């Protein structure tokens, strides 16, 4: 599947998907520019307020490596969803909502990823390599530099697109890296993800009437009565007992009948699902099937 478009870089795939997107640039660019301004203002606030900066840095340092990876994944997915709103048609994707307590840590983490380069950090710090990086100084330098750039000055609305394409392109690399890590830990066979479906997607499943057919999970008949015991999966509409579907979707985000994918709760699994949808958009296959 991936071999077909191996010649395409992530950015090229994204640009192709953008061109096929139904959201006009006149609507997309101002919303991206507004988001950039919001995040940049928050970063400036963190850099100007020592207690807030320390709190966000402490929050980040207290996180385990998997939690940091999850947070980074959420932030990258956020860029992807803002860039391609078609991936989340109702704009209510669960990963767009980053908890307020994590948002400052996320903004800091993103700024750190952008500004950190090992040689620069080594030459700017004292001769001892073990001295900690002065993140505050590094981020202030970087923030001033980017505020004075073309995109920072808002000289052209197109300039606000580039950071989002960059961040969204990182999604694929992020998914590749963490999927290797998952395989090493003993994850699913055949690259299959074991992450459960997102709680929001499960809660949004509509109740359905049983039609007397057997439930594909437990093989027992779904009785003919309205609502309550039976639900229909989105996007495919296959029906199962509620309790069977809940047990199944706690461990997987695919339909047991047709393997249609539901949004995943885990940012890593969700990154892979969304990226596959981006590739379908880029190749003009409009069965995005992401809702
Ligand atoms: Zn069942
Ligand atoms: Zn199905």
UniProtKB/TrEMBL annotation:
The GO terms describing molecular function are:
ubiquitin protein ligase activity; zinc ion binding
Q: Which Pfam families match?
A: zf-RING_2
Keyword Metal-binding belongs to the record: yes
Any one GO biological process: protein ubiquitination
**Assigned keywords, A-Z:** Metal-binding, Zinc, Zinc-finger
A cellular component annotation (GO) from this entry: cytoplasm
Classification via Gene3D superfamilies: Zinc/RING finger domain, C3HC4 (zinc finger)
What residues does the RING-type domain cover?
A: 215-259
What is the protein name for this chain?
RING-type domain-containing protein
Q: What is the lineage of its organism?
A: Eukaryota, Viridiplantae, Streptophyta, Embryophyta, Tracheophyta
């Amino acid at each position: 599947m991936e071999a077909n478009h191996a010649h395409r870089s992530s950015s090229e795939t994204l640009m192709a998907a953008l061109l096929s997107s139904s959201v006009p640039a006149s609507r997309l660019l101002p919303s991206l520019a507004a988001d950039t301004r919001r995040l940049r203002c928050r970063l400036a606030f963190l850099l100007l307020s020592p207690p807030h900066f320390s709190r966000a840095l402490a929050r980040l340092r207290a996180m385990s490596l998997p939690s940091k990876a999850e947070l980074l994944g959420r932030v990258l997915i956020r860029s992807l969803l803002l860039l391609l709103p078609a991936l989340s048609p109702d704009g209510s994707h669960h990963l767009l909502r980053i908890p307020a307590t994590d948002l400052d840590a996320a903004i800091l983490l993103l700024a750190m990823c952008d500004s950190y380069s090992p040689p620069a950090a080594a030459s700017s710090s004292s001769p001892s390599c073990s001295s900690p990086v002065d993140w505050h100084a590094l981020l202030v330098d970087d923030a001033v530099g980017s505020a004075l750039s073309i995109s920072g000055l808002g000289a052209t609305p197109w300039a606000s697109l580039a950071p989002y394409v960059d961040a969204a392109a990182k999604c694929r690399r992020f998914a590749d890296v963490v999927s290797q890590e998952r395989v090493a830990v003993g994850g699913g066979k055949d690259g299959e993800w074991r992450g459960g479906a997102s709680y929001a997607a499960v809660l949004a499943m509509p109740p359905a009437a049983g039609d007397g057919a057997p439930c594909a999970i437990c093989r027992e008949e779904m009785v003919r009565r309205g609502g309550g015991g039976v639900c229909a999966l989105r996007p495919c509409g296959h029906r199962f007992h509620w309790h069977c579907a809940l047990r199944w979707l706690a461990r997987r985000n695919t339909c047991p009948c047709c393997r249609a994918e539901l949004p995943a709760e885990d940012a890593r699994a969700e990154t892979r699902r969304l990226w596959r949808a981006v590739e379908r958009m880029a190749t003009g296959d409009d069965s995005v099937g992401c809702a």
